[in-house]
Amino acid sequence: MTDSFSTDNSNQVIHFDSREHVRELALELAQQARREICFFGNTIDHVLFDDVSFIDCLSEFARRNNKTAVKFLIHSSQTNIQTGHRIIPLAQRLTSSIDIRTTAKQHQNLVQMFMLVDTNGYLYCQNYQRYQGRACFYDPAQVRSLKHTFDDMWNHSLLDSSMRRLHL
User: Quick one: CA torsion of 102, 108, 111, 112, rounded to 10 degrees?
Assistant: First the structure.
């Protein structure tokens, strides 16, 4: 496992192989966000995102201005709904900033997981079931490649009706 991120090596690729390290990296990446955070995975990952510090960071980011965007693209939200993931009520309150969609049928077999921050930083796992992968706080070329993949899937994605807030 590589040492934690330092500002003088922002383009250093950081390899991780534990839940704790990937959680720290996801939070550090989110803290550097200025315009957009994109996530792709099987579900809204509980290790990365169901944490008070991350929720607070995401809430502050989403409320910063009307141009910030958070996009979650997942295969299924059922587990998140059943376990009461903290992002769901936040997304239901901040509908203009946080969007959750499900992948189209042709993308349901993809097993990687990644998070993109603006046009600079990324976190990537080859398989969403293992917290092993890499992250970098400044790699525009890699982010551009992953963003192209994300945007293609996003353009084919479906609104997740189970995420809607019911007003009674």
Answer: -50
